[in-house]
Amino acid sequence: MKKGIGLILILGIVVAGCTYGGDEGKTLKTPANPIDKLVFKARVEVIPFGPPHIVSSKTVLDFGKLPHNIIERKEILITNNRNFAVVAIPSANGSISKWLSFDKERIVIEPKGKNSSIVSIRIPEDVKPGNYSGYVVYTFFKKT
Amino acid sequence: MKGAMTALLLIVLTIHLSSAISATGTITGRIVSTSINVQNISFNELESNSAVYYYKTSGGVGSVSLNTQASGIVPFATIDFALDSGSVVVSIGDNKTLPSGAKIILDDDPVPSSTSSDPNQVQITGNSQNQAAITYPSQNAEITYNDDGNLYVFIRTGTAIGDINVDILLSS
Question: How far is A19 from chain B (nearest CA, A)?
Fold first, then answer.
């Protein structure tokens, strides 16, 4: 009986957590049923000193070679060719992810519209030189 | 006239791209620009001297005369263009403090030169209000690269005395 109640509670939490909050500015909740994904590989080489090496890769979020405490930003333009508005939620994973940040937690893109997202990186002082990588993922949901 | 000036540059580099990345379905994304913001590129105290151009070295600050290669210069940034060539357009940001007569040269090579012998450079000069203004070229302040390359910064203090605090925006 207790096991059953616990399961119901867990299910309830999961369902509540998957309810999408709607417009920008409200508390972020994880929506259900993603309709699309956009994936960028991300990498950086942390160097102890020297000038930054900036890479303008076509296909990769390549932050090149960065010394500590320098902020590098990359702007991604997202185009929605669908006939309905979508919401993109950015996320990052891998060894690079803890230094990545996004200017917006959610990006609303109108039908046949465009919007941009800026991904920033800053390497803290205590990070050891070396190569770090991961992925930046934009998960899309139909705007309700 | 001998004097000292403290140079502090804030340089913002933006490289715009036209490359696209396909997404699944009918939503696409492309990386349209890269920018870098480096603060406190301090030259510390620079002596007023019209005959030399100051530059950063690994050990501090060096100086060189016109048309002479700067020994041991450290590039401000190295640039890897997506198409192996490209250009950088220079503009000035919010901070514009540059003593009258002082000059900042942005160049793709480590030789401070006159604009007649090396037109592929951008010069920023302090005007009579001690404000930075792009004085060369008069239009399209652009540095072109035929290959991946470096960006170098030189400062000529001239006889000026005062602090340098200039934000430089580079984009292409």
Answer: 23
B161 falls within a domain = yes
Instruction: Enumerate residues 6+ apart whose C-beta is below 8 A from B155.
Output: B7, B43, B46, B53, B54, B55, B102, B103, B104, B105, B164
Q: Is B51 on the interface with A (CB under 8 A)?
A: no
Closest by CA to A115, choosing from A38, A22, A28, is A38
Residue B12 lies in a domain: no
Q: Is the pTM of this model over 0.90?
A: no
Asked if B110 contacts B56 with a C-beta cutoff of 8 angstroms, the reply is no
Name every chain B residue with its beta carbon within 8 A of the beta carbon of A78: 27-29
Structural domain boundaries enclosing B108: 34-171
Residue at B27 is within a domain: no
Domain count, chain B: 1
Which residue from B15, B29, B31 is facing A54, i.e. has the nearest CB? B15
**Do B36 and A50 lie within an 8 Å CB cutoff?**
no
Residue A80 structure tokens: 């929605």
A99: left (phi over 0), alpha (psi -120 to 50) or beta: alpha
Rounded to a whole number of angstroms, the distance from the CA of B10 to the nearest CA of chain A is 12
For residue B156, being part of any structural domain is answered with yes
Whether residue B97 contacts residue B170, with contact meaning beta carbons closer than 8 Å, is answered with no
Interface predicted TM-score (ipTM): 0.76
- A133 or B80, greater pLDDT: A133
Reply yes or no on whether the pLDDT at A96 is more than 80.
yes
